[in-house]
Design goal:
The chain is an alpha/beta fold. Helix content is 40%, strand content 14%. The strands form three sheets. It has a six-stranded parallel beta sheet. A four-stranded antiparallel beta sheet has the order 2-3-1-4.
């Protein structure tokens, strides 16, 4: 099963034709596009060949997958948003009418192995997520007050969990249904909704966390001129593609995703020892998998959930 495995790592945004017959698993994030399949099939679905392409075969492919899902290939070392992204892509894959039993078996074993590595070696450093760094920036600036979170996805929920204990949370999102679901789920935090795209209302909030990414929508410089009138302020854009259109930078307390990555590099230095242990454990697991991979009936999704 593992001998013909191919994993292709491509730049984020690379266009891929998505077959509906289950012969490919595709993961798309702000850092990469990852294609998993067998033999030469993955290459046939790359629409625009990329200059930066990495190909991994057999046990090297499985090792790369395991390092990726454990956050060891991420710019924020050990981050666990990648786990949710894998789970979401896997759920989408399960929605195909036809599935490849070999791909399913690979992914299911991958989830189990990743759970072992994260639990044993990366539990503490995995907490250093995008939301976690946003909280650190707030703390470093000794900022206190109301926070506006833009968006209603998983990252918005992560921010609510981390920030609601010390801040009053306001939420603004295009998807009103999902926003109301978050308000209901975290009813003890008394989250208030703000009308979507009400830039005048948004500009009154000194602390804003944006989680949406879009090529069709942007927050322009006029907004930032109004927003900058707040004495204490911090705007963190965690979306990809970036939606802010302003020359303001960290000097004006506007942080983009690349600034978060740079901040994360400093934090990465203290993680190296645990990461080295995780790499060694991954090598051991991959060697075991080489001998144990075999076709098996897919288990239930509940059995491969992460802690």
């Amino acid at each position: 099963m593992i001998s013909g495995l191919k994993v292709i790592n491509l730049p984020a945004g690379t266009k891929i034709n998505r077959p509906k017959n289950g012969e490919l698993f595709i993961l798309e994030t702000c850092q990469r596009t990852l294609v998993l399949g067998y033999n030469f099939v993955p290459f046939h679905h790359i629409v625009t060949p990329a200059k930066e392409i990495e190909t991994y075969v057999a046990d090297k492919a499985y090792s790369y997958l395991l390092e990726t899902i454990c956050g060891l290939k991420s710019k924020l070392l050990g981050e666990n948003e990648i786990t949710s992204q894998f789970k979401k892509s896997y759920t989408e894959y399960l929605g195909y009418g036809i599935r490849n039993s070999q791909i399913m078996s690979i992914l299911e074993k991958l989830f189990m192995d990743a759970k072992k590595i994260r639990t044993s070696y990366l539990k503490e450093i995995g907490q250093q997520t995008y939301a976690g760094i946003a909280r650190k920036l707030l703390r470093n600036s000794s900022l206190d007050g109301d926070i506006l979170i833009i968006g209603s996805g998983q990252l918005a929920e992560d921010l609510i969990k981390l920030l609601s204990k010390k801040h009053r949370i306001f939420l603004s999102a295009r998807n009103t249904t999902k926003a109301l679901d978050l308000v209901s789920k975290y009813s003890d935090d008394n989250i208030e909704l703000v009308e979507w795209n009400s830039l005048d209302a948004w500009s009154k909030f000194p602390f804003i966390m944006n989680t949406i990414g879009s090529k069709a929508y942007s927050i322009n410089h006029h907004f930032f001129l109004d927003w900058s009138k707040n004495d204490e302020r911090l705007f963190i854009d965690l979306g990809s593609p970036c939606v802010i259109n302003t020359p303001f930078t960290t000097r004006e307390e506007v942080y983009r995703l690349e600034d978060i990555f740079e901040f994360g590099k400093i934090l990465n230095e203290s993680k190296q020892q645990k990461v080295q242990s995780a790499h060694a454990a991954i090598e051991t697991l991959v060697q075991k998998r080489i001998n144990s991979f075999a076709l098996s009936l897919p288990f239930g999704w509940e059995e491969v959930q992460f802690v």
